[in-house]
Predict the structure of Medium-chain specific acyl-CoA dehydrogenase, mitochondrial.
Amino acid sequence: MSTFPEDDALAGEFAVPDDVQPVVDRVIAFIEEEVLPYEEAHADHVGGPLDYLDDDGLMKPETRAMQAEIRKRSADEGLYALHLPEEVGGGGLTNREHFYVQEAVFRYGTGHGSSVARAMMAWTEGPSPALLHLDEDQREEWLRPLVEGRETACIGITEPGAGSDVTAVSTTAERDGDGWVLNGDKRYITNGPFADTAQILATVEGAEGPPHETMGMFLVDTDNPGYEVGQPNLNIMMDGITSDVHLRDCRVDGDQLVGEVGDGLPLALSWVNWRRAGRAGMCAGMGRYLLDRMLTYAKDRETFGEPIGTNQAVQWPIVETATEIHAVREFGTALLGAYDAEANLHDLHQPTTARRKLSMLKYYPEDRLFDWADRAIQVLGGYGLMRAGGVERVFRVARNLRIPAGTTEIQKRTIAKTLGLE
């Protein structure tokens, strides 16, 4: 049930290394044999571009149930948390190896916004490398359900007054006996309305030192009466899973602090770095989806008696995109391989060269994806502007990506600083 044309002109050209091919084959087989038939059987909830949203702009319960089913099936097959070490139930893949998994998943899972195919791979809602800092008891309670796909998470970093400047968070954690009381407001929280577990960054009252040394990361069960889901954030992606989150006298136990007071900001950045490291594979996968759409349309659509693909004005953006996808794949895998050799995503203190690589991996593929999506809309013409065309959503996603997990400008600033330009 492959979604790609059998006469794919680039079949076999975007190579996967022999050491990674078996796991990528397993991922593709899972999507084609499990996910696509499941989506087809439940087309009422995902068949159209916005069928997955309710009247309030949030994801429908039926679609979330589909995601949960695919997530659990994937976890049962050992595919959901391939990015984590085997010791915690993950697949033990390096970042370079995981690039090829992400590429495959996003090539298949880009056609509409319901993210059912993408639910097979842990993303924002899944177990992050930051949680490797939990002790054994904490791992059993908080990490294992995420690895096994039984629960989902969100992370509360961004606030109305704290975006790029994470040290400006105003959410507080106050000691209360053997526990903590959290108060504050978080904004633009992906999976905020539906998460089982929230990871909340807060400033610890009474802690001494500069702001970045006074923060803690706290685990919150979202059934806690002090955890409140706020208004939905109806964003450009129309993802249906983003909202404000409020902490109102939210009491948590002492063992719900991750690490120590002072580890909060490094832990938050560990989560952010996980997202940055995943951008290259994500963008390459969506880029290949766009290229598939452009090639198919250019060959099938006729004007003046000939396929539009015979015109150079249509050929050039396709050629440029195919070339640049090759470049991003080589760039991404090379930098990820170099990063793997010097650091881990769960390291709380990243070497200067590692920080530079992560910032490059974040902004450069995103910029290219935005260009590819713009070209795809132009090649498809009026159809490209339509939701049914399947590419306008990627354009919106591409525009969104350049802000979360650190804006393009912040990435360039980091690169400049690591080059001694400050």
